[in-house]
């Protein structure tokens, strides 16, 4: 196994977990992939909480020593639940520890890793098919996300009190399916969580996204909020897609940006813009506005992921207050 490649993956996981151990709420902006991602390149959004863990995927608690928190997100068709919590390493790599993460994967290997984790920990939520085979569906987005796409993270500090209040809030409310693509999607869930910690930090964009909450808009809002509040200890990181033969993810976009940059809609939109200058100016404004936000640059990361032991040790020492 190539050591540099493997170390880059493990370092990314270790530093991501160690960095977040400072007790932060972290927005995960995830690039689109696959056939649906090609049609709807807005990607996915999730929340990582470094001090919050889970007894089960649907019941939260405070983390104990050595635990690295959970990733929580809203899903469309997973067991009838509105949100599901997955441990950090499992969410990124479908593994229980960084040492189990492969240096590279094929589509079949990624599927096998996911299914193995599902059978061990998620059988009640995502049961086998009647013939014992692996079920289809959106559950595959619960684990091993870094096999399918690059992920950008944006973090703000939290307090123990607010973490405890969020745990109580989510545990006490009915966790039943609420997903709606236009007004209760994954980015809306992220908006509600971040706004719980920092009211009005995230808002919709009625120009670039015609009022639909998108992952990219949520990330932009967090970055802008952090710039206005430098005392919040903002930090960011890029978690790269694991090397291998799994198709690479693509750039995350907003609603109108997706339409403008789509070959399918380019000609009709251009024609409409010429015939209706007001509409055209709106499209131009949306495109310019979206082009100003670079997810990678906004994390403040010069590299995708720490790749040397020195960088990991430095991060861990900083985290410990040395």
List descriptors.
6-stranded antiparallel beta sheet; single chain; alpha+beta; disordered C terminus
What does this structure look like?
The chain has 322 residues and is of the alpha+beta class. The chain has one domain. 43% of the residues lie in helices and 14% in strands. It has 13 helices and 8 strands. It has a 6-stranded antiparallel beta sheet, sandwiched between helices. The protein has a two-stranded antiparallel ribbon with strand order 3-4. Helix 1 packs parallel to helix 13 (309-320) and helix 10 (263-275) packs across helix 11. The longest helix is centred in the first third of the chain and has 18 residues, at 3-20. It is globular, with a radius of gyration of 20 Å. The two termini are 34 Å apart.
Summarize the structure.
With 322 residues, the chain is α+β, with helices and mostly antiparallel strands. Helix content is 43%, strand content 14%. The protein has helices at residues 3-20, 34-39, 88-93, 107-121, 145-148, 160-172, 186-197, 215-228, 255-260, 263-275, 277-291, 295-298, 309-320; strands spanning 24-30, 44-49, 52-56, 59-62, 70-74, 83-87, 151-157, 235-239.
Q: Could you outline the blueprint of secondary structure elements for this entry?
A:
Layout: H1 3-20, E1 24-30, H2 34-39, E2 44-49, E3 52-56, E4 59-62, E5 70-74, E6 83-87, H3 88-93, H4 107-121, H5 145-148, E7 151-157, H6 160-172, H7 186-197, H8 215-228, E8 235-239, H9 255-260, H10 263-275, H11 277-291, H12 295-298, H13 309-320
Antiparallel strand pairs: 1-2, 1-7, 2-5, 3-4, 5-6, 7-8
Helix pairs in contact: 1-13, 7-8, 10-11
